[in-house]
Amino acid sequence: MARARGLLAVAAGQTYAQAARASGHRSYQAISQLVSRFNQEGLPAIARRPGGGAPPRYGTAAQARILARARQAPDPEQDGTATWSVSTSNAPCGGKARGWSRSAVSRSG
C-alpha cells in the first residue's frame, strides 16, 4: 500500500520528497522511479517485484482478509473507532490471536 500512497500523493500535487515521507519511502528517488514505472506499466507497477524487500510472511488469503477489512469504513459502535490505525485495524482482522502481527497489518498491500 505504500507504493499506492506514494503515487496518490504525487497525483494530489505533492513533490516526490513529500510523497516519499507521506508513504514511508526513504528517498524521493524511490518515488521518482515508481512514477516512471507507473507511467510505463500502469497498475502493475505497484505490485511486488522479485528481490524487492522481505518476502511476504502471510499467504494470499490472509492478505486478502487484511485488505478487505482495511477497505471497509469502521463502525464506531462495533469497532470503537471512527478511523483505522494500525492498532485498531489489527484487532478486527484477528490480531495476534490469528497469527497476524501489528507489522503485518502495516505491510499488507
Can you walk through the features of this model?
This protein is mainly α. The chain has two domains: 2-46, no CATH class; 60-107. 57% of the residues lie in helices and 0% in strands. The N and C termini lie close together (4 Å). The mean pLDDT is 77.
Summarize the entry for a quick read:
With 109 residues, the protein is mostly helical. The chain has helices spanning 2-11, 16-23, 28-41, 60-71, 76-79, 86-93, 102-107.
Mean pLDDT: 77
Extended strand count: 0
CA-based gyration radius: 15 Å
Q: Based on Cα principal axes, name the global outline.
A: globular
Number of helices: 7
Query: Structural class, please?
Result: mainly alpha
Low-confidence stretches: none
List the domain count as a whole number: 2
Portion in strands: under 5%
Characterize the main sheet. Answer: none
Helix content: 55-70%
Order of helices and strands: HHHHHHH
Termini separation: 4 Å
Chain-wise SSE layout:
Layout: H1 2-11, H2 16-23, H3 28-41, H4 60-71, H5 76-79, H6 86-93, H7 102-107
Helix pairs in contact: 1-2, 1-3, 2-3, 4-6
Keywords:
single chain; 109 residues; mainly alpha; 2 domains; 7 helices
